[in-house]
Specification:
2 domains, disordered C terminus, 484 residues, globular
Length: 484
């Protein structure tokens, strides 16, 4: 860059939001390898400690819609910066937690901050970049999300090899402080917030209660039984709250969810494709880790390192596919990406066995990364580009909420497969990274169950590809930038 030339605001905004995305993604998975150490030092049961992971994911999913609506009303940069601060405070509190329940409560605080960053990051990028560069920018941002999901266990393993589990939270504090100050100094509102509108507290409550009931039912159904009264009651509560929420949103003047967004064919099908893709793919990493640890006997850290081909390829392809979508639209690269991921799953179904070579695993993971890189940034760019500027917050929140719901449901699917094909205590110990010597019968049973889950995922990827293909021409691809 020539001396004296200022960096354009759009690149500064991308830098700040990418740091936040990376931190939020890492902290959704970083505690996986630390659970055994936490259990011993906090004197907690396994089923309680699993909620150290789930509390963060659940709260960061449930509040996305409400935070997106508030951001449209009060300002996206303001809400993003507040999220960075809350995330950092939550991290510090997690580090000093004196017991398991305290740690879970502080993870809720951390997850709320992560949700504020996540929901506003895409909106800030969409508003800052012109349509012709939006896909590339979101592709760069997607690197952080893809890398963070796998970097979490890796970073957690490295920290645990040198320090106490509390440092997996303390390490966020200096980065969070720096990111908070940076965001406060450089981020600005590019469009006036909708200050004359009111927040729909009743709709937000109905949605949050209903979604929380669904996610808890999905994650607890394995242990309690899918037909048990508590689980059936939670599913019933979800249905009732969903009906009440949709009825309210149709008649209220300022809804928390603008149903008009779904009148856009591009937005509608992009959101559906995103949810189905998350539902199909998120469980794959967990099942492969189960396979590498339980069937192949690798240590948790080694198993996490063996997943590197997926984020590595995705990180390279993401920006390139975003650049391609800026030129030709999202439909072709996003649809091809979903088909490539389906092909990767077919490879796993055909070739994965108790003695498969790592080359097979690496090839499958690389194809998964290639497909994800082709899908994510074009699909997100198309969805956000089709939304009105005044509704970018809620558009991003709706996309993220359905994507996260798909992820949590996929996570429950992974655990259901493990619990259904292995003794429960073995499956749950595998989940927290404990090496267990398995006999040939459990090995074969797990692989059969894993391949059954992969077969379902293939079908979901193909349906998502049809949704992607049906979206039509991008509506916002030739739009003007708000600022540069």
């Amino acid at each position: 860059m020539p001396p004296g030339k200022k960096i354009e605001y759009k690149w500064i905004a991308l830098g700040v939001t990418t740091v936040g995305t990376l931190m939020a993604a890492i902290d959704s998975t970083i505690v996986v390898l630390a659970l055994p150490d936490m259990m011993v030092k906090l004197h907690a049961e396994l089923i309680v400690m699993v909620w150290v992971i789930m509390a963060y994911i659940l709260i960061s999913t449930v509040f996305l819609l409400a935070f997106g609506r508030v951001a449209d009303m009060l300002g996206r940069a303001r809400m993003y910066n507040l999220g960075f601060v809350i995330f950092t405070v939550g991290s510090a509190l997690c580090g000093i937690a004196g017991g398991a329940i305290q740690l879970i409560l502080f993870r809720l605080v951390q997850g709320a901050g992560g949700a504020m960053m996540l929901v506003n990051g895409s909106a800030i990028i969409t508003e800052a970049f012109p349509a012709r560069q939006r896909g590339r920018a979101l592709g760069i941002n997607s690197i952080a999300w893809a890398a963070g999901g796998v970097a979490g266990p890796l970073l957690g393993g490295l920290i645990l090899s040198a320090a106490d589990w509390r440092w997996i939270f303390y390490i966020n504090v200096p980065i969070g402080i720096a990111g908070s100050v940076w965001g406060y100094r450089v981020l600005r509102e590019l469009s006036p917030p909708a200050r004359n509108e009111r927040f729909d507290a009743g709709g937000a409550t109905a949605f949050s209660v209903g979604l929380l009931a669904l996610l808890v039912a999905l994650t607890r159904g394995i242990e309690a039984g899918w037909t048990s009264l508590p689980i059936l009651s939670l599913f019933a509560l979800f249905v009732v709250m969903l009906v009440l929420f949709l009825a309210r949103e149709r008649r209220i003047e300022f809804p928390v969810l603008d149903l008009g967004l779904f009148r856009s064919r591009v937005y509608n099908f992009a959101v559906l494709a995103s949810m189905l893709q998350s539902l199909a793919i998120f469980s794959v990493n967990f099942l492969i880790i189960f396979y590498l640890q339980g069937v192949r006997g690798y240590s948790p850290l080694t198993a996490a390192l063996m997943l590197i081909p997926l984020p590595l390829v995705s990180s390279v392809v993401g920006p390139l596919s975003g650049l391609l979508s800026d030129r030709i639209g999202a439909r072709v690269p996003a649809t091809i990406g979903l088909l490539v991921q389906a092909a990767a799953l077919v490879l796993f179904i055909a070739q994965l066995s108790p003695d498969s070579s790592y080359a097979v695993i690496a090839c499958g993971l690389a194809l998964m990364g290639l497909g994800g890189g082709l899908f994510w940034s074009p699909n997100t760019s198309a969805a956000m580009g089709s939304a009105p500027v005044a509704r970018l917050g809620i558009a991003s929140a709706t996309l993220a909420t359905l994507r996260q719901t798909g992820m949590v449901t996929s996570f429950a699917l992974a655990l259901a497969v493990a619990a259904g094909t292995l003794p429960k205590e073995v499956a749950m110990q595998l989940f927290v990274g404990t090496n267990i010597a398995l006999g040939s019968a459990p090995m074969q049973a797990f692989i059969i169950g894993m391949k059954s889950a992969f077969s379902v995922s293939v079908g979901l990827c193909l349906v998502a590809a049809l949704m992607s293909l049906a979206r039509g021409k991008d509506e916002g691809r030739h739009g003007a930038a708000q600022a540069s």
